[in-house]
């Protein structure tokens, strides 16, 4: 979900990590393990100006959800 959101918002994962105060290495590990916290998801939503409801909601209403 996070990678798809980055693509849709035209931001690199490294830039996202910088904006939420994470190192790309540490955050990539969390993504691979599936251990990104709710607080981190909320921070991602805040810095990318999208909603988060266990899914990302783009301003146009499009949803990106776990599969």
Please tell me about this protein's structure.
- The structure is a single chain.
- The protein has 67 residues and is mainly α.
- It has one domain (2-65): 434 Repressor (Amino-terminal Domain).
- Helices cover 52% and strands 12% of the residues.
- The chain is built from four helices and three strands; from the N terminus they run ααααβββ.
- It has helices spanning 2-8, 13-20, 24-33, 38-47; strands spanning 51-52, 55-57, 63-65.
- A three-stranded antiparallel β-sheet has the order 1-2-3, covered by helices on one side.
- A hairpin with a 5-residue loop joins strand 2 (55-57) and strand 3.
Concise account of the structure shown:
The chain is mainly alpha-helical.
Helix content: 40-55%
Strand order in the sheet with the most strands: 1-2-3
Number of domains: 1
Q: Spell out the helices and strands N to C.
A: HHHHEEE
CATH topology: 434 Repressor (Amino-terminal Domain)
Give the end-to-end Cα distance, rounded to a whole number of Å.
9 Å
Question: Biggest sheet, in brief?
Answer: 3 strands, antiparallel
β content, as a range?
Answer: 5-15%
Q: Which whole number gives the mean pLDDT?
A: 93
CATH-defined architecture: Orthogonal Bundle
CATH class: Mainly Alpha
- Outline: globular
Question: How many individual β-strands?
Answer: 3
From the alpha carbons, calculate the radius of gyration and give it in angstroms: 11 Å
Structural class of the secondary structure composition?
mainly alpha
């Amino acid at each position: 979900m996070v990678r798809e959101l980055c693509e849709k918002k035209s931001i690199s994962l490294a830039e996202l990590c910088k904006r939420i105060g994470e190192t790309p290495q540490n955050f990539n590990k969390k993504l691979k393990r599936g251990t990104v916290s709710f607080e981190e998801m909320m921070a991602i939503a805040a810095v990318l100006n999208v909603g988060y409801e266990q899914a990302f909601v783009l301003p146009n209403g499009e949803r990106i959800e776990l599969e």
